[in-house]
Write a structure and sequence with these properties.
Number of domains: 1
Shape: globular
Radius of gyration: 18 Å
Strand content: 15-25%
Number of strands: 9
Order of helices and strands: HEHEHEHEEHEEEEHH
Distance between the termini: 31 Å
Amino acid sequence: MCRQFSLWYSGGKLDDLFWRTSGSGSRATNRHIKGKDLTKFQHGDMTHVRPEGRPLTEHISFEFKSYAGIDFHGIFHTVSPENSLLSFWAKCVRDAEESGRLPFLVTKVLNGHPTAWVPRVLLEIFMAWGYHVDANRGVQFWIPPCEVVTKRTYPRRAKGAAKKKAGKGKPKLEKYTFKTAQCVVGISLDAVFKSLDTPEDITSRLAAADPASLPIPRREDPTDGRA
C-alpha cells in the first residue's frame, strides 16, 4: 500500500516515499498511554521516509486494514465489533484526532481491490477545488453519536496456571466515542488516484486552507477510553 501511495504522489517516479509506521502506530499509542509527548508522524499506519512525501502525511493520517473478510453488512452489530467497518473508522478517526490531521482509511478484502473511506465533507471540498470525484457515486454510511469498541484484549494467564474450563475471562475494551453524526464515503482507491491526479496541488491547498473548514477531528471532543 505504501508503494502505491508513493507512486501516486510522485507521478510514478518514486516508489519509496512512504513506509509503515513503527508497529503500525503502536509507538504513538504507547506514548499516549504513558502520558508522554505524542509523535505526530508515528500515528496511523503510514509515514514518510523521504522529505518529498512529508506534505501528504503532514495533513492526512492513514489507516490500512486488510482481512480475509470485513463486516460491511453488520456495521453496527457484529460478533466481533472490533473487526467491523465502523470500528476501523473509529480507529482511523482517533489517530487523526490525536495527531491533528484528516482521517483516511483504506480497507482491502483478501484478493480484492482496496477501498478508500473518507469524510463526505472532504470529497465535497475536493469537488469544489475542481477535482472530478463524485461523493454521490461511492458507498455511504452515516454514523450516529455512539460509542464504538475498537479493541478487545483478554488477560494473559500466568505460566503453568490451570486453564479455565470455559471462557477467556473478562476482556479489556478500548472504545471511541462519536459525539456528532457524520457521513463517510467509500470509493475505489484506484478511482481516487485517477481523480486526484495532482496530489502536490492538493497538499498545497490543504496547507493554505483554514483548519476550521476541514473535517479534522478536534481533540476537545471525547476520545477513546484507553486510559
